[in-house]
Amino acid sequence: MTPRVKRLLAGAICTLIASSQPVAQDSGPVTRPLSGPNLTDRLPAPKPTASQDSYGRIVVSWAPIEGAVSYRLWRSVPPTPTAAVALPDPKQTSYVDPDVKSGSTYYYLVAAVNEAGIEGLRGATTPVAATMSGPPTPTVTAKLEQPNPFQVLVSFAVENARNYEIVRTMYRLSSTDPLQIDHSRPPETVQRVMANTSFTDSYFPIISSYARSVSYTVRANLWNGVVTPAGTSNALILPAGVGMTTGGTTSTTGGANTSSAAVAGSTTFTVAAPATVKNGATTSLSASSGSPARWVSLNESVATVDASGTVTGRSAGNTQIVALATSSDGSLRVVAITLSVTP
């Protein structure tokens, strides 16, 4: 046997001996990281799709997930972070995003929620590069035209709008500081639908000696069936210490008060009433206007008024009787007149 063969044989024997030895293992305790949510308790991820429709909106849809009672959706327009979307109906399996701008990219995440309220895995759409803008958001402005009584001119316009859904929200204070208005808790909301692109809001039933704030939110219903995003006006601070006192001019003649309100192109609205009435007595008010008046007493503990305009004194004091009627141009006219009840 040659020396070279001997060296090769010795190396092979050493390798065989080394491979036959047992491998040392750590027999001590093993610390495991805390586990995440149990995937078996979470619903599977939906497979949402997103595409831009012919109106410029992005439509997101997904197949129902078995066991889901609702869904959650998130939206991102890079570079902004992902934000949760308040779904109009969390049980539906689709969402229409109208707030789309050409040139931006949008993507969405969807998760199913089970009966226990546990959010499932999230599924993502393919990013959508918008090639056209969605329906425009109405630009809404509110301007105080007249402080006594309040008259606010609200203006807005969107091309190809069939009509507008308008929500008026009012806020009031217990302080003269307008910065203390809590706009997160409105005390009154009024809705209306109209075809005009502006109107004068002149009926503010909340009577207070302090400053108030009012704002208007407008959505446009387009002729093609699309509803635009909501536009909100500036928060208009109404002057302090001014309320719905008279509808124009007030005069006292022969113990009677007369109040009237007139606007160019509108029917003059006049209310005549006695300056005083005795407690327990009744008196009838009359109004000259384009339509029958509606009557309201601002202090029914002093005097009440029925649908026909008959006032009844209830206790000594002062109140205002308000008449509301529709003018020939369709606008609402408001007249208030002071009435004293004597013992």
Task: Outline the structure in words.
Helix content is 5%, strand content 43%. The protein is built from 1 helix and 27 strands. The protein is elongated. With 343 residues, it is mainly beta. The chain has 3 domains: 42-129, Immunoglobulins (Immunoglobulin-like), CATH 2.60.40; 141-238, Immunoglobulin-like, CATH 2.60.40; 249-342, Sandwich (Immunoglobulin-like). The strands form 7 sheets. Strands 3, 4, 6, 7 and 8 form a 5-stranded antiparallel beta sheet that branches. Strands 11, 12, 14, 15 and 16 form a 5-stranded antiparallel beta sheet that branches. The chain has one helix spanning 3-19; strands spanning 49-52, 58-61, 70-76, 83-85, 94-97, 105-113, 119-124, 128-129, 141-147, 150-155, 161-172, 188-194, 198-201, 212-222, 231-232, 236-238, 249-253, 256-261, 269-274, 276-278, 282-284, 286-288, 294-297, 303-305, 310-313, 317-326, 332-342.
SSE diagram, text form:
Elements: H1 3-19, E1 49-52, E2 58-61, E3 70-76, E4 83-85, E5 94-97, E6 105-113, E7 119-124, E8 128-129, E9 141-147, E10 150-155, E11 161-172, E12 188-194, E13 198-201, E14 212-222, E15 231-232, E16 236-238, E17 249-253, E18 256-261, E19 269-274, E20 276-278, E21 282-284, E22 286-288, E23 294-297, E24 303-305, E25 310-313, E26 317-326, E27 332-342
Parallel strand pairs: 20-27
Antiparallel strand pairs: 1-2, 2-5, 3-4, 3-6, 6-7, 6-8, 9-10, 10-13, 11-12, 11-14, 14-15, 14-16, 17-18, 18-19, 19-22, 21-25, 23-26, 24-25, 26-27
The gist of it:
This protein has 343 residues and is mainly beta.
